[in-house]
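Quick illustration, no need to memorize.
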Amino acid sequence: MPKPQLVCPAGSLPALKAAIDHGADTVYLGFKNATNARNFAGLNFGDAQIRDGVAYAHARGREVLVAINTYAQAGRLSEWHRAIDQAAEFGVDAVILADLGLLAYAHRTHPQLRLHLSVQGSATNADAINLAHECFGVRRAVLPRVLTLPQVEAVIGKTPVEIEVFGFGSLCVMAEGRCILSSYATGQSPNTHGVCSPAGFVRWEPQGKAMDARLAGILIDRYEEGEPAGYPTLCKGRFDVEGDTYYALEEPTSLNTLAVLPELIRIGVAAIKVEGRQRSPAYVTAVTKTLRAAIDAAGDARYSVKPAWLDALAPLSEGHQQTLGAYNRPWR
């Protein structure tokens, strides 16, 4: 089987160059606005940066994808149309879309532009993916992180669309593209405003030697002195449930598929994606180097996960914990 593409995140031009320089086949990025589901302050790409990034990647034979993966807001549709027009103008290799109306616009207005169905589209079966292919010419679909390996294989066997899966990084609570937690707390949905846990609603409050993290006044977590603290999101907070305080929705744990890479190749995935456009260039460098080496080695029958790869990824994992997630879940 052919090796899958390694698709790496770029939240900035230095991160894009780091990914390209260390083995990414493709990078994905977004604009500095609400069309981007990772619209964090200080990150993402303006016009000049995208032009520079596309030129840098194409000069080295690599590809650039633009994620326009939020749902257009009522009365502001022109902003999303403009983002698609700009992506086509900049010569990117594909746009990643979730909104059916935007897929229709892109297919109608830019028939030469390659379209990928975003994970935020929440297509978990071949019928949904084939419908996007038939209606809008979608060439690749990113599967939500909710399927077992046999289920991924079954989808691949029933669609002509390339299938991309996540290989490393943060896990989303098992309702990708349908998150309502942040909107419950802040009134701003990540699916329409482009950011989970908007920074303007985050508060860090010292409590003696401990530190409280709040979103819109809601206590999400309390970190004791010296305890690692990540960016606070509601789905990964610790909550009091009937007197027991724990991660009630989702633990801060990173997906790591090194152990099943040969199986992902055997079943025919077209691309393996690294999560993390909000991460630093150093994170992108380390993860890209490690996944590049592992994917290149995974076609060999003697493949085994090298301790050095695990050592490189362990400090980059949320809560320093890793999992195979739904790929290996015992329940369905």
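The longest strand covers residues 162-170.
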